[in-house]
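Example 3.2
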Amino acid sequence: MKRKEAIKLMTAGTLGIGLSSSLTADASSPKPLALKGNINHSVCRWCYRDIPLEQLADAAKEMGLVGVDILTLPEWKTVIDRGLTCTMASVEGAGIVKGFNDPNNHKDLQNKFSAVIPKAAESGLKNIICFSGNRNGMDDQVGLENCAIGLDPLIKLAEKHNVMIMMELLNSKVNHKDYMCDFTPWGVKLVEKIGSSNFKLLYDIYHMQIMEGDIIATIRDFNQYFGHYHTGGVPGRNEIDETQELYYPAIMQAIVDVGHKGFVAQEFVPASGDPLRSLRESIAICDV
């Protein structure tokens, strides 16, 4: 390496350290973050399960977040009373493994979702999560058809109440073995099959980096099919900082550039000893 090149790298490193320190100091400050308003920030409840929901909601409000993700009906009031919203509602008993791809699950799921959709609308909530279920040897096309059939009456109810049902894309390589909705093209085909503006995909960046990669290009090409985003560091699903392979400022800029008006929820599991500080820093990283 030539001396000029070495000096250039050293200078860049010094600047990088300075910028990183500045960002960390700002992100961990007790003062509210000066958010730009281009991203509607949220956070997934389950990643902070050791923190009482009331405390998490208060911290989220102070940071400038608009809501909390993945809450069941009894939990909605806690965040609503604090001036937040549940940015993605979860239906109790509607899990990941037994989903809409199996007709044997349709009646039970339809009953559970039908009870929640009107209540979500009454509470001002817009989004409800759903899952495809595992393959269990089922052909993907058969599973897609089954999902469309099972969701059909619920989509009609969602249209009536102006609520969005979203199926989450999850990886079947590391976390959810055998899950069917594990690639963007399959999910896109389901959205097209259903053909309703009240059904979209929850694009989980962590999961799809593991399965597909090509995150920014996918967001640009298929943003019209995505209604919601989740974050997470790869590998490990921890902090979205310099310890992992994704560069979130560029990903967030792509989300802004395509005109996304929904929510972006942090869904990393804090590995640090201060999870709320990690959350603040992730919001600062993602606020473009």
